[in-house]
Amino acid sequence: MAERVLAGYLREKGLKQSSKRDKVLDVFLKTRDHLSTEDLHGLVKQNDPSIGYTTVYRTLKLLAQCGLAFEVDFQDGVVRYEHSLNRRTHHHMVCTSCGDSVEFFASELDNVQRRIGKEFHFQPSRHTFQILGTCEACFKKNQSAT
Ligand SMILES: [Zn+2]
Ligand SMILES: [Zn+2]
What we know:
By secondary structure, the chain is α+β, with helices and mostly antiparallel strands. It has helices spanning 2-13, 19-30, 37-47, 53-65, 108-119, 136-145; strands at 35-36, 69-73, 79-83, 91-95, 101-104, 130-133. It is built from 6 helices and 6 strands, in the order ααβααββββαβα.
């Protein structure tokens, strides 16, 4: 299904399908992690060392443009991506000390999205919600330090 979305998008843009791009997509869809371009390149290289960083970078951009990849920003200056295939909508909690992230589900936010959309005559497609703070381990470390 994801292959078809990408193929359709490439056709629309007049771009050729490439086996390297397909491999990047394949590796990306197999993980559930939040990956920076470097992270993904590292995984892709294990499969096919001939695939360069630029190919991974460009493919991720394409995937984001056709809605297969979403950017996640953990406020540390690194752009990461995740895919939404076969996944429920989730949100992230990020520790600003160690960078650890936790995924959580909060279906009540869907109701908020719907209500706000209605109120402003806006057609919402998705939303982001993020909690920043200190994880338990860092909190304990800080406490024992003082
Ligand atoms: Zn932490
Ligand atoms: Zn996530």
